[in-house]
Write a structure and sequence with these properties.
about 210 residues, TetR family transcriptional regulator, Homeodomain-like_sf, Arc Repressor Mutant, subunit A, DNA-bd_HTH_TetR-type_CS
Length: about 210
């Protein structure tokens, strides 16, 4: 027979597992609906319905639609960052490794933000600056921790220099959101970043 403590622990563990399932379901629905209809045209009611939960249950786990957007974006970027690091590790030249990794992560970040929410919406949002700062700070932390844990980079480049490279690159790429008007502008900005700016940043990092 189970003791009272064992029963309480089992009930707590079961509740946590159920909560995790609900969160995963909401994230899956958000990723699918944001891609299909766009962030602005997807309501909390639709997210709850697609997740097969009550609206109150949604708000129990996420205080706003903006928060679930942020979670989905960071999950997607995190998956891609690890994939990029794993693929680029074959490159023997450290400067090439850093440049290619930063460039690919930058493209993923820009693309995923555009795909899930659209830069036009971010530009027009009253909280655009605040939202981009939160996303920018979290992305910086993710990249820095991923780079430090990577054997090719972490044991070779000091943390403060990696911070300089990531912060500088990130700020430049996020500025695209407010300066690029068309996709042609985006491509032009990335070409300029790749050929003119990134090599200088990598060189300064490895000095």
């Amino acid at each position: 027979m189970c003791s009272g403590k064992a029963i309480i622990y089992f009930a707590y563990k079961t509740t946590c597992m159920e909560s995790d399932k609900v969160i995963l379901s909401i994230k899956k629905s958000a990723r699918e609906l944001f891609r299909r209809y766009g962030y602005n045209k997807t309501s909390v009611n639709e997210l709850a319905k697609h997740s097969k939960i009550a609206k109150a249950t949604f708000y129990k786990h996420f205080s706003s639609k903006e928060l679930i957007l942020h979670e989905v974006l960071m999950d997607y970027i995190r998956e891609n960052v690890q994939d990029i690091l794993d693929k680029n590790v074959r490159e023997k030249d450290l400067s090439t490794f850093l440049a290619n990794t930063i460039l690919r992560v930058s493209r993923v970040t820009y693309t995923v933000c555009n795909e899930f929410v659209g830069w036009e919406f971010i530009r027009e949002s009253a909280n655009a600056q605040e939202y981009l700062k939160t996303l920018s700070d979290d992305l910086e932390f993710l990249l820095l921790s991923s780079f430090i844990q990577n054997e090719t980079i972490g044991q070779t480049v000091p943390e403060e220099r990696l911070t300089f490279l990531i912060k500088s690159s990130k700020n430049i790429v996020f500025s695209f959101a407010f300066t690029a008007v068309t996709e042609a502008d985006v491509r032009k900005n990335f070409i300029s970043f790749q050929k003119e700016i990134l090599p200088y940043l990598v060189q300064a990092t490895l000095m």
